[in-house]
Amino acid sequence: MKKRISWLLSVLLIAMSAAFAQAADPLPSWNDMASKKAIVAFVEKVTTPGSPDYVRPAERIATFDNEGTLWSEQPMYFQLFFAIDRVKALAPQHPEWKTREPFASVLKGDLKTALKGGEKALAQIFMATHAGMTTTEFENIVKDWVARARHPKTNRLYTGMVYQPMLELLAYLRSKFFKTYIVSGGGIEFMRPWTEAVYGIPPEQVVGSSIKTKFEMRDGKPVLVRLAELDFIDDKEGKPVGINAHIGRRPIAAFGNSDGDLQMLQWTMAGQGARFALLVHHTDGEREWAYDRDSHIGCLDKALDEANAKGWTVVDMKNDWKRIYPDQ
Amino acid sequence: MKKRISWLLSVLLIAMSAAFAQAADPLPSWNDMASKKAIVAFVEKVTTPGSPDYVRPAERIATFDNEGTLWSEQPMYFQLFFAIDRVKALAPQHPEWKTREPFASVLKGDLKTALKGGEKALAQIFMATHAGMTTTEFENIVKDWVARARHPKTNRLYTGMVYQPMLELLAYLRSKFFKTYIVSGGGIEFMRPWTEAVYGIPPEQVVGSSIKTKFEMRDGKPVLVRLAELDFIDDKEGKPVGINAHIGRRPIAAFGNSDGDLQMLQWTMAGQGARFALLVHHTDGEREWAYDRDSHIGCLDKALDEANAKGWTVVDMKNDWKRIYPDQ
Description:
The structure is a homodimer of 328-residue chains.
Chain A: H1 2-23, H2 34-47, E1 61-64, H3 78-90, H4 103-108, H5 111-114, H6 118-130, H7 135-148, H8 164-175, E2 179-187, H9 188-199, E3 206-218, E4 221-232, H10 238-246, E5 253-256, H11 262-269, E6 276-283, E7 290-291, H12 302-310, E8 313-316, H13 317-320
Helix pairs in contact in A: 3-6, 7-9, 10-11
């Protein structure tokens, strides 16, 4: 009985601290402007019991793109930095790479030439570095890289280049019993090893691009081997497909930053009841990067037009966000 | 302030009722025998703080096969009854089926002849009834069927043929902060429309076999169209692959009933720390069906040998379960 009472007391304490936390501003890194107001207004109306727009907790699904929405993506997707580092690490086991493109140019540090082969070259680099090992081995490789590798321009750890205002937004939504998902064009197994620690998003709430895996017995122990065979591309038209495959419910809120997110936002907004769509517009060339319609990475063109036409929320990073990265 | 206090009170009330519920037997339909004892012992040791086998809540993943583990599967998988009912419903739109196999025999009620074409015939029946519509249309078709169709032998709704002891087990695990998943060879979109109401398992925690879907704009509205193209078979070696793709963590407990579940159980047991594997053995020809090594549906042969060799828990339905179905 004593044990039960102390348990009840701790439940009460947790409940009280939650009640006090509610009083504080849940989005302190957001300036008090239209974007923040739109977010809070949406969350209030779908979570307030009795509201005509009330949504029960189980249906509160929010999906977030990763690259350019939760962390930076310039001058190229961080997963490509990872792949290049892996080519260098694996080179001793592949003497033939010295004379074979795209590897030869990667090893010389000439990425421009390496990527002249377009998608085929990119696929070769990715398969050579992402396939052939077990899922457990790959997880450890990613964990190791994420803990050490640094961005060439900012010298930060890549996981230090996540957006503080978006971390607050994720936590705010979860405090209101939303389930927060990543729906990214990036590799699902490249994200899962660190999303829980960095974003509070567990592996089962990460949707991404994938290669096939195969169940095998090795020395009497079951393993999953990563095959050099594309399984699914979770980008553009693929995002609603990935959402349906993994979640099986339509999100009520979606967050992106590029034309690659347009279909996810359209799919989200086409559901019944209150809905929310937001685009992060990269307008801060000083604290981060400024790019949109003409960028090769994170091109924001058609989605920006549609956001303007339909009144979706567009975050102006320079003016909406007090800071960009957690350490700024 | 008044509002906050009443909220705290309701939190306290919920906490108190949870505390009292703990005192009652969480598995009343299980006889007090080895299977029940093994389940409770495992759950206690992984959830008791300070236990050397303690597992934090986020890692408490439990996966359940569906057919033969959570609901019956005789004289054939219930999804095949659904497909046959759909062939009949769609026949007026397909006059050519009158003379084309396997449809002609299905329409004559001669399933034996219809299925003589083996897997090819089965695939034709499935694709003709599961593809071609949008995901929303298919969801409504399934919901409608599940609400009305009845099993030819028991005359019960199919969702009335779920196992009461397993419903209790699912609820017991969730009360201990396990996340319960279905990992089934059945169609993922065939299960999702009713698993939340019947099992308390939300759509995002259902893993199953799938066909491909395609994003399309129809009259300016986005839809996902179900294509007559196989995407993934979530059976045998496919189960660990499906678990990895959807969950991204290894379960600590897995529940099955046939050789189709063997690899899922092997994958689960190969992880570090305390693990639990259970097979439901269909031994009750009176209240349900009795079958194992020689059955075409739900064959339990190799998995039974491995369970015996490795000391996995094997449920003897006849002796372990006080009742089978909720209405018994």
